[in-house]
Specification:
Number of helices: 9
Strand content: under 5%
Helix content: over 70%
CATH superfamily: Tetracycline Repressor, domain 2
Mean pLDDT: 90
Largest sheet: 2 strands, antiparallel
CATH class: Mainly Alpha
Shape: elongated
CATH architecture: Orthogonal Bundle
Radius of gyration: 18 Å
Order of helices and strands: HHHHHHEEHHH
Strand order of the largest sheet: 1-2
Structural class: mainly alpha
Number of domains: 1
Amino acid sequence: MEAASNLIHEQGVPQLRVEEVASEAGLSVGTFYLYFDGKDDLFAHLVIEYTQRLRDRMRASYGAPGSMTERMERSLDAYLSFVEENEKGFLYFRDAGTIQTPVGRLSSWALEQHAADLRPLLEEGMKSGEFRSFDAEQTAQAIVGLTQHMAGWWLEHRDHCSRQELAHFLLALTGIGLQR
């Protein structure tokens, strides 16, 4: 998986070949197929692993001290850093996330994981009165979906806005909706 991750970072997923991954890992193609059904299966395993890595970063930012707004800002920064570090894999995931896996459709599963992590922060903000009271599940789904879409758009349109401008826009847009 490390070999595949390195190759994806260098060249992207569409160009990735099983033979190349096996060679980079020092394995035979036959050994590769003992662990994975093919390139899509390998990619699904990578998404599951990388989703956990991102969730760990996000949870750390949610749990750090500060106001709800400060915690949302830190979490967005963590998310955009991760997306930028994994640009080619992220864009492929966005475009091919309908791959069926043991956890369901890959894109739906990943969004559910992130929304589940965000929901307690939103509930805390709503309970404290810092955020308006909305359905926390719908709010989490909306924020996660918007953020993922806009991160992908930004990666493909960096000439339109900087990372800081994107973060400011997303925080302002979600903040307007959440503020009391």
